[in-house]
Write a structure and sequence with these properties.
Order of helices and strands: HHHH
Strand content: under 5%
Shape: globular
Radius of gyration: 14 Å
Distance between the termini: 13 Å
Oligomer: single chain
Largest sheet: none
Length: 137
Amino acid sequence: MWAGGAQGAAASSSQGTKDTRPLRDRQYQAKMRQDVYSWLKETEFEGIHPQTLQNITGRDFRAIFEHLVCLLDPQWPFDMDKRLDDQLISALHALHYPYVSQIDLKWLAAPGAQYSWPSLLGMLHWLAEMGKVRSLL
């Protein structure tokens, strides 16, 4: 579905794009959590609870990330035997996530941590919003 498929990369002009969303704002985070939660429910993601996105584990993060990516590209080649950090950046590049250069793979060890969650939630929110747009096509 996406130009370049699994090997595609975002245009070089988007690699350094600064994220101007207020990701550390509590109200904005609450809205993003609600949007992601609603989209997961709508797409029949199993086992999701509102609390999941308030205190996310690595396992839940991986499941949600893979679900959102597969909604956008059902043929995306996730490999359950590989670590997520080996697959996350290539998936984001292929989907043209504009803030991929601001994702630190070390954050995946503790996705719910205060320093990592705002950016990771912002990424999940972007994937959910892209999924909503794709569903309208």
